[in-house]
Amino acid sequence: MKKIVFFTASLVLSMVCLFPEGEAVSFDEIDEAEEVEAPAPLIRAGGLNFNLYTDFTLYGGLNETINAGEKEWEPFLEFGQNHFNVMGMVSNDQFSAVFDISTASRFLEFTLDRENTAVTLGRIFIPFGSADYHHIYGGHPDEGSLFLPFFWTDYGVKVNQIINDSLNFDFGITNGFRTYAGAPVFTSSPTDENNLMKALNLRVNFSPALNTTGSFSLMFDSFSDDDAYLWEDSILMYGVDLSQRLGALTLKGGAALGEVRIHSEGLDESLLLPLTYYRIGWYAEASYRFDAFTLRLRTGGVDPDSRQLDQDDALNFNTGIIVPFGPMEWQTVYLINYPLGGAVSGTSTGLYHQVLTKFLIRL
């Protein structure tokens, strides 16, 4: 699909109720995807806090499709709303609860904090990678969930243990991926359990030097809906993320690799694709903060299934200008997506150009 977007305007309203003397929410991690992530809820001892987040979007352009070997252009212009979220937090010195009040109810975390150890249970954020809400493996937040769920949460428990000022780790136990037709589903967060086995998650967060941070992530899950194949049907995934700040220049990069195994007992292997395959996603970013604006360059790629090459295998490049002024922030981002595989008749090619302009407001 060759998608040329001539105009995109996104108006985001973010308002924090109670405790007006609090810190401002940073917009540094809000990205160029049409689905913009909400700012993190504020944390204060002994208080109840809310974040209201919504957006209004206008976008239009041309889509290119292939029908009977001929390319056709389809114009579009529409208004839309990607999010309407209300997030809340209640806390004291040792306990906190963070919850999503929207109809989606995508997370609900209860945390008990004792000195250097914190225990969190509920529908928790999976401790994998460096992102708070959305991963950017592939180069931008993956609203299509080609590599990982766009909003990755699951029911379970996790423990954060602080070793020292430069080292801590998260260990989590969750239900794990659900399945469809015997294969794991990566397009959405799990809401139920398939078997007796639980997903095991480990993330080590480190800061070896001043202004240098990183994390190493590991996940193992058996997704089989038949307990006889708990070890044969599994995924083992690794991830590494690094960040270095050098004055006004910030460099970031990360990659994740997943090995997926599906059992073949009783099946005719000559009729099947290989039953072990890999999933790969990566990104690299450089941003420079000037007095009046920040210039950001980012690239990345994703291969959701090594068994086949199609338009979901892609590289992308994007550049953006971020301008803060008062309680507002303006972003203009240009993105081009290159598919590595071809398209079949009646489908999109996967090649598109996109220009987005966004205005974000916190009152």
| First-residue to last-residue Cα separation | 39 Å
Radius of gyration: 21 Å
Question: Secondary-structure element sequence?
Answer: EEEEEEEEEEEEEEEEEEEEE
Helical percentage: under 10%
Sequence stretches where pLDDT stays below 50 over 5 or more residues: 1-45
Outline the fold blueprint.
Layout: E1 4-17, E2 48-67, E3 70-80, E4 84-91, E5 95-100, E6 108-114, E7 117-125, E8 153-164, E9 167-174, E10 179-180, E11 183-184, E12 199-209, E13 212-222, E14 234-246, E15 249-261, E16 276-289, E17 294-303, E18 314-325, E19 328-339, E20 347-348, E21 352-362
Describe the protein.
The two termini are 39 Å apart. The strands form two sheets. The chain has a 17-stranded mixed barrel. Strand 5 (95-100) and strand 6 form a beta hairpin. The chain contains no helices and 21 strands. The protein is 0% helix and 57% strand. The radius of gyration is 21 Å and the shape is globular. The model is unreliable at 1-45 (pLDDT under 50). It has strands at 4-17, 48-67, 70-80, 84-91, 95-100, 108-114, 117-125, 153-164, 167-174, 179-180, 183-184, 199-209, 212-222, 234-246, 249-261, 276-289, 294-303, 314-325, 328-339, 347-348, 352-362. With 363 residues, the protein is mostly beta strands.
